[in-house]
Amino acid sequence: SPELKGGPLSIPSQEAEDKLVIESNGGKEHSTVSITVVGASGDLAKKKIFPALFALYYEGCLPEHFTIYGYARSKMTDAELRDMVSKTLTCRIDKRENCGEKMEEFLKRCFYHTGQYDSQEHFVALDKKLKEHEGGRLSNRLFYLSIPPNIFVDAVKCASSSASSSSGWTRVIVEKPFGRDSKTSAALTKSLKQYLEEDQIFRIDHYLGKELVENLSVLRFSNLIFEPLWSRQYIQNVQFIFSEDFGTEGRGGYFDHYGIIRDIMQNHLLQILALFAMETPVSLDAEDIRNEKVKVLRSMRPIQLEDVVIGQYKSTTKGGVTYPGYTDDKTVPKDSLTPTFAAAALFIDNARWDSVPFLMKAGKALHTRSAEIRVQFRHVPGNLYNRNSGGTNLDRTTNELVIRVQPDEGIYLKINNKVPGLGMRLDQSHLNLLYSARYSKEIPDAYERLLLDAIEGERRLFIRSDELDAAWALFTPLLKEIEEKKTIPEFYPHGSRGPVGAHYLAAKHNVQWG
Ligand code: NDP
Ligand code: BG6
After folding, report:
1. Ligand 1 centroid distance, CA of 195 (Å)
2. N or C: lower Cβ tally within 10 Å for the chain?
3. Are 51 and 91 in contact (CB under 8 A)?
4. Reduced 3-state DSSP string for 409-425
5. ipTM > 0.95?
6. Which residue from 256, 292, 261 is spatially nearest to 274, judged by alpha carbons?
7. What separation in Å is there between the alpha carbon of 50 and the centre of ligand 2?
8. How far is the CA of 177 from the centre of ligand 1 (A)?
9. A GO BP term, please (predicted)?
10. CB–CB of 167/139 below 8 Å?
């Protein structure tokens, strides 16, 4: 069965697959997709976008007729673009059959156009080239804005007026950050909507494309054993933890303007929280899911500064090696107070989640790289085993469900278990679903799924403007208060577990970090 090999589990993906087969077999053989990566000379394009497009090509997921254009100001020929992207293309599938041949075929479909982001003339020239490749077929066009946010609107204005499709759809994938607060985000949305309809805008949050995040709804809504427990009645707290074992290397200039709350919490972790906590959607349709997410976000209690801890990493020397502090980065001001770590307690004021702490923790330059969701259940009432066994070694240990988003993707449930033997001793064991042991198929990169969805017009994993407004409405007052009060972050050594303040915050809410 395809499911056992890690194939698509959700109905829309299956439908989408069927649609692709129909497209390539007949129905739409006269259509073509032109994908323009705007900012093709940049880091994200090289690291993620071109490799993801190649993986889709390798897997046979791109339509039969497609063309990829890189667009940026840097002067480059087609051959130079191909040379540049070929260096990162095979990162996921280099050991697979015919990878070299497929790569050659793919590169022949990649072209480059030099242009300014605010030049109608340069986009008109791009349009001309796209038309030549499209060869009179019905043309669909996807623009991926892989550029700094201050030029999003210029590029959209030019792309929509000078290079949009005249016969098929035109869609634009917009990378984060979508503003810095409610005001700037609303202004960006308003500007984009001068040139695009909401359903043409695909705001990407790549965490939504991660396998275990997509699986969250499957876990909840297709297993009878979880959904009945998914409330304040049985869950004591939920934790969303993001940690990186490296600093802001190379991105200090960007990061200092945003900080960890905007970089990770307001988007990636909050999106996961919304999926975790939403009510059952009417269907798996994008609008039904996004309606439920918005409701949860709008039910959240304003975040209090006393429920937040911020930190910043400082230089440390270990084993003769010195690891730099955040402000050692030349692009970061020496007196920067920008948090590289934050922990926060959030609450959802609705019937399902009243009084349950949702703890978030995100940090750079910590001791490990991981992203996980931890669900800590309440104590078993009565505690029979502690009473009857004269005090076992497990007195009040509770169940915990862990969804490990990365690395070593997996789901495990901590249960109390009798240690085999004649005595009655309990310990805590794991019911463990480790993806690498269970599924032979490797896990696609998040960008692959999201690019494919954008091509197919599947909006489920993209952020709608009202979701974005709700997310900013939650975080903007907190960010303003932190910045106005010039709150000093707690300094933590590079490579440590972060500020101790995070433990006090958890203890205040009767929680222990997992
Ligand atoms: P880069 O800073 O590498 O910029 C991409 C390209 O944009 C550059 O190659 C450059 O191309 C052009 N560019 C850069 N600065 C300017 C400027 N001031 N004015 C005009 N053009 C400029 O960005 P990334 O590739 O790192 O990121 C692209 C987008 O994706 C950003 O919005 C970023 O926030 C977001 N993002 C990036 C991630 C990453 O890991 N890199 C992760 C998540 C999101 P040229 O000079 O050739 O025109
Ligand atoms: C990006 C942040 O959105 O996500 C980066 O801007 C962060 O700061 C990155 O490093 C983490 O993504 P991943 O997929 O590597 O966990």
Report:
1. 22
2. N
3. yes
4. CEEEEEEEEECCCCCCC
5. yes
6. 292
7. 17
8. 11
9. glucose metabolic process
10. yes
Angle between helices 99-108 and 78-86 (to 10 degrees): 150
Give the HSE-up count for residue 377: Cα atoms under 13 Å, Cβ half-sphere: 19
Given the residues 122, 206, 268, 494, select the one marked as catalytic: 268
Cα separation, 503 vs 451, in Å, equals 39
Centre of ligand 2 to C-alpha 302, Å, is 26
Residues 6+ apart with CB under 8 A from 168: 31, 138, 139, 140, 141
The predicted model scores a pTM of 0.92
Quick one: which atom of ligand 1 is closest to the CA of 145? 29
Pairing verdict, β 410-418 and 400-406: antiparallel
Give the mutation target among 204, 263, 313, 447 for probing the ligand 2 site: most ligand atoms within 8 A of CB: 263
Q: Which of 117, 119, 147 to mutate to test the pocket of ligand 1 (most atoms within 8 A of CB)?
A: 147
Query: Amino acid identity, residue 395?
Result: D
> 422 — phi, psi (to 5°)?
-75, -25
Q: Which of 398, 348, 356, 355 is nearest to 378 (CA)?
A: 398
| Residue 462, strand partner residues | 204
Q: Identify the residue whose C-alpha is closest to ligand 2 atom 10.
A: 244
Residue type, 261: I
Residue 379 annotated to the active site: no
Tens of pLDDT, residue by residue over 275-332, are 999 999 999 999 999 999 999 999 999 999 999 999 999 999 999 999 999 999 999 9
Q: DSSP for 330-362?
A: TTS-TT----SEEEEEE-B-STTTTT--EEEEE
Residue having the nearest C-alpha atom to atom 4 of ligand 2 = 264
CA distance linking residue 417 with residue 353, whole number of Å: 29
